[in-house]
Design goal:
- It contains nine helices and 19 strands.
- The chain is of the alpha+beta class.
- Strand 1 and strand 2 form a beta hairpin.
- The model has no long low-confidence stretch (mean pLDDT 95).
Length: 448
């Protein structure tokens, strides 16, 4: 994998080539990654994988016409050919009145942000194997666990460099440590699978293999002998490991391109109270060691912390430059960029602030409800907000978690669900979207 200096040099060379062949403006991105993973199953080594990749992407503008292209050949000759083809493609493209680089005045200039994203150490393959074995051994030691899908440990490094023809150049790198276990409980027709995993920037922040494995085993055993739910309207409680998906749907609906295309269920709801006024949802791109922390966005704009929801209202759209021009707003530093295509929109490290009630207090008055621990399928309509997902979890009876249930569907409309949402106090911090336990009253459950 190339280093920061070489990545920035390749981006600069691409920009120079594009200008030479007649581009009025251009931006270039270089992405490098290296990863290694070790998987064990039933105490034996199952798989060892190592991968490395380097790729560059170039976006060029000729007037209001643009084109994007990517390559993995980083030689000088290949970069020249890439730039020449990109400019030729742009000249043949239709005009787009909203196309163009970000406003030069908004570019990140001179700021130095140390987000502590890169771990100096790198585990050896035998260390990864020991971690994977520890996780699987702990999971298999849980009474009731009868089989294993394996334990896995991984390490990776990634690098992103971005340059533009109007003066921006920046780069950052990060590391990633991962650990997981997946096991099966029960026998015959009564078998249930579950898992546990964690991913962190630094090895010091990763839970032990014993903790991951024990959690995976206990989750699998708890799902044995699932019952069925009767259909009806009832409170649905989302466990933190699935509740973040609700906020993911909100973020997608706040994206400028969706608003510009008029394909978001949040259209005309910018000033509407969508949540309880006490609810606050925060985007933190500068979170130290955050999984999605970044100093600048995919167009070279400085990122900044922001409330996504405050006083029950969304605070505005999340926009890259093209959709911002179309909507008549300023870009928000949420542009995301891969090695091909125009920038999209994404948030960084997002969390919902915890409520006042504990999880037990949150469910204490539920006479008949369900706790969802797994969601299945993708039944969400981003235009209307209609929501329908397969699920499994546990019954809630008279304020207590009862036996496991499976093969049911939870349904509603996201706007109604947001209004009826209440967070508990048990906020967890190990995903890119972090939430406490969430209660949503009045959802439709379809079971037997």
């Amino acid at each position: 994998m190339f280093d920061l200096a070489r990545a920035q040099e390749r981006c600069g060379a691409l920009i120079d080539c594009a200008r030479w062949f007649g581009a009025d403006g251009a931006d270039a991105i270089a992405i490098g990654s290296a990863s290694e993973s070790v998987q064990v199953r039933l105490g034996k080594l199952e798989d060892v994988e190592r991968s490395e990749s380097e790729q560059v992407g170039l976006r060029v503008f000729v007037g209001q016409r643009s084109a994007s292209i990517q390559a993995t050949d980083l030689s000088d000759g290949a970069l020249g050919e890439l730039a020449e083809r990109a400019v030729a493609m742009a000249r043949a493209a239709p005009e787009d009145p909203f196309a163009g680089l970000a406003d030069e005045a908004l570019l990140m200039r001179g700021q130095q942000l140390n987000l502590d994203l890169c771990d100096a150490g790198e585990p050896r393959p035998e260390q990864l194997r020991a971690l994977a074995e520890e996780a699987e051994d702990a999971a298999r030691a849980v009474a009731g666990v009868t089989n294993s899908e394996g334990g896995s440990a991984s390490f990776g490094r990634s690098l992103v460099a971005l340059a533009t023809s109007h003066g921006f150049s920046g780069a950052y790198e990060g590391s990633s440590h991962g650990l997981s276990a997946s096991v099966v409980a029960g026998n015959g027709g009564n078998m249930q699978r579950d898992y546990a995993w964690r991913q962190t920037r630094h090895a010091a922040d990763l839970p032990s293999g014993a903790e991951i494995g024990r959690l995976a085993g206990e989750r699998a055993v708890a799902r044995l002998d699932p019952g069925r739910l009767a259909s009806g309207t009832m409170p649905v409680v989302f466990d933190p490991r699935v509740g973040g998906s609700l906020i993911g749907h909100l973020i997608s609906a706040m994206a400028g391109p969706a608003i510009a295309r008029r394909s978001s269920f949040l259209l005309e709801r910018l000033d509407e109270v969508l949540f309880d006024p006490a609810i606050r949802i925060v985007d933190q791109p500068h979170l130290l060691r955050g999984l999605r922390s970044r100093p600048f966005d995919g167009e070279g704009l400085l990122t900044a912390p922001r409330d996504l929801v405050a006083d029950g209202r969304i605070t505005g759209w999340l926009a890259e430059s093209a959709s911002a021009r179309q909507l008549g707003i300023a870009p928000t530093g949420h542009a995301s960029r891969g090695s091909s295509g125009a920038p999209g929109v994404s948030a960084s490290n997002v969390h919902m602030e915890p409520g006042a009630a504990s999880r037990d207090e949150l469910i204490a008055d539920i006479a008949d409800g369900v706790l969802v621990t797994e969601l299945i399928g993708h039944g969400v309509n981003g235009v209307t907000g209609d929501y329908s997902r397969g699920a499994s979890g546990f019954r809630i009876v008279n304020g207590e978690i009862a036996g496991p249930v499976a093969e049911f569907t939870v349904a509603g409309n996201l706007v109604d669900m947001f209004r009826a949402l209440t967070p508990a106090s048990d906020l967890e911090w190990h995903q890119s979207i972090n939430v406490p336990t969430l209660r949503v009253d009045g959802m439709t459950v379809a079971g037997d």
